[in-house]
């Protein structure tokens, strides 16, 4: 995705609906070029095209969440991808930042991706990398699988790194998640004892969600952005976590 396409996404997300002609004037390129950009962005599930315009995705699913802090999540995902070596087999949980991470990694053929996210699997359908999708009960809105069968599948596969998302982190509760069944899947992954990496923007810190996700001892590294308050920086480091902050 080039800088112009990234700007288009931001304009669409802010305006919710914007015409092709407006995008052409704002970008300084022809309407033909804008239509080509929109075709590409729609194919990659970033926005929706209608006659003469583009509209933001309105749902509460991964598509919609990806549009929040999109540029920042791109930076986080790009950095996370740099930690993966050719030949690695890695687990990627669901969530918008993890979906962007999967896209970066899919450009490398010598990587095997294991995921519970059908959304991520769909994004990678034309990629060259190996994709393993685990089974389980399908949650339609999050497009991920959960439940006892998913836990069993996790126990039967091997990977060297796991990237997970969180919905909250607080000094009193540690890492937490909104959905009980997704939290159960994450905890099954963490229990395998590999290099577990939290990938999240700093907005999740200070929030408390109902379901505990991990003890600090189960997390190897946290990748977040430079908006993380100093008190949380110090807390994570005191707990022995590798903290990587990405951004300007």
**Oligomeric form:** single chain
Derived from helix and strand composition plus strand pairing, the structural class reads alpha/beta
Spatial strand arrangement across the major sheet? 6-5-4-9-12-14-15
Strand content: 15-25%
Number of domains: 2
Number of β-strand runs = 15
What would you say the CATH architecture of the largest domain is?
3-Layer(aba) Sandwich
Domain HTH deoR-type: 1-56
GO molecular function: DNA binding; DNA-binding transcription factor activity
Protein name: DeoR/GlpR transcriptional regulator
Keywords: DNA-binding, Transcription, Transcription regulation
Q: How would you describe the overall organization of this protein?
A:
Keywords: DNA-binding, Transcription, Transcription regulation. InterPro entries: Carb_Metab_HTH_regulators, DeoR-like_C, DeoR_HTH, NagB/RpiA_transferase-like, Tscrpt_reg_HTH_DeoR_CS, WH-like_DNA-bd_sf, WH_DNA-bd_sf. Pfam families: DeoRC, HTH_DeoR. The chain has helices at residues 3-15, 20-27, 31-43, 62-66, 70-81, 96-105, 118-123, 148-156, 180-190, 230-238, and strands spanning 17-19, 48-50, 53-55, 89-92, 112-115, 130-133, 137-139, 144-146, 161-164, 168-170, 174-177, 195-199, 211-214, 221-225, 242-246. It is of the alpha/beta class. The protein folds into two domains: 3-57, Arc Repressor Mutant, subunit A, CATH 1.10.10; 66-246, 3-Layer(aba) Sandwich (Rossmann fold), CATH 3.40.50.1360. The strands form four sheets. The protein has a seven-stranded parallel sheet with strand order 6-5-4-9-12-14-15, with helices on both faces. The chain is globular, with a radius of gyration of 18 Å. The mean pLDDT is 88.
